[in-house]
Design a protein that fits this description.
The chain has a 7-stranded parallel β-sheet, with helices on both faces. The protein has one domain: P-loop containing nucleotide triphosphate hydrolases (Rossmann fold). The protein is α/β, with parallel strands linked by helices and 218 residues long. Helices cover 39% and strands 16% of the residues. The protein is globular, with a radius of gyration of 16 Å. Helix 5 links the parallel strand 6 and strand 7. Helix 1 packs across helix 6 and helix 2 packs across helix 7. The structure holds adenosine-5'-triphosphate and magnesium ion. Adenosine-5'-triphosphate binds next to helix 2, strand 6 and helix 6. It holds the Pfam family CbiA.
């Protein structure tokens, strides 16, 4: 019986597989396909919605967003036994652009994580303008890794930049929590975090994101 959610990584760094391998009760199906990107063509006929998570700037949170968004969507759809959503985690480098272009062929939409840091602005703009917009797909820029303890200035500046670029964006911002940073080593996704206040907040962000994107089913 297929799970409702499938995560595919096409990142040759394979950090997604390193993380997924540590998770005891993986709430979704998982495959690593950077050597066999032609397998992505199979997704076309499944009827599932295919979401690519992309930003050619490294370390912006693509893997964190992919696995945790997939986890909350899988949690909401756990009684569903047909494939509904596929999330593709992609490489954070310009060298692997061909892999990203391959994934975009089969995607319905693209989520572009970016941290609220001016250093990330130009590289994100390159990915959006050179790769994502030419693909003609709907896309959403998602602010990730915002630390509320630093105040709202960075978040506001980033939102102003996104607005000035005219990029579609999401109201939800994913806040920075230490639990997210530790989760890969602990082999957990957000639905499996311990029951404490920071974990609740961390989880809330991903449920908000899934609701805003409309990925929770009917
Ligand atoms: N919201 C967050 N809160 C705390 N830590 C975060 C958050 N998002 C990302 N991180 C941390 O930042 C680092 C980079 O995140 P991640 O590996 O998800 O980025 P990436 O875009 O997939 O990187 P790459 O381009 O190398 O594949 C990791 O240590 C991760 O735990
Ligand atoms: Mg990654």
């Amino acid at each position: 019986m297929p799970a409702a959610v499938h995560v595919v990584s096409i990142d040759p760094q394979a950090s997604t597989v390193w993380w997924a391998d540590r998770i005891t009760d993986l709430p979704f199906d998982f495959s690593q396909e950077h050597k066999t990107p032609e397998n992505l063509a199979l997704l076309k006929d499944t009827g599932a919605r295919v979401h690519v998570v992309a930003n050619q700037k490294g370390g912006v949170g693509k893997t964190t967003i992919t696995l945790n968004l997939a986890a909350v969507v899988a949690d909401v759809l756990k009684e569903t036994n047909t494939l509904q959503h596929v999330f593709i985690d992609t490489p954070g480098s310009l060298q692997d652009e061909n892999l990203l272009l391959e994934a975009l062929k089969y995607a319905h939409d693209v989520i572009v994580p970016m941290p609220p840091e001016p250093l990330a602005f130009d590289p994100t703009a390159r990915t959006v303008q050179k790769v994502i917009e030419p693909a003609g797909l709907p896309y959403f820029v998602l602010v990730n890794n915002w630390d509320p303890r630093d105040g709202k200035a960075d978040l506001d500046e980033t939102r102003e930049y996104i607005e000035a670029q005219g990029w579609p964006t999401l109201k939800t911002a994913i806040r920075r929590y230490k639990v997210h940073t530790r989760a890969s080593a602990e082999g957990k996704v957000v639905t499996q975090y311990d029951e404490n206040k920071p974990s609740f907040k961390a989880r809330e962000d991903f449920f908000r994101l899934a609701i805003e994107l409309g990925y929770g089913g009917r």
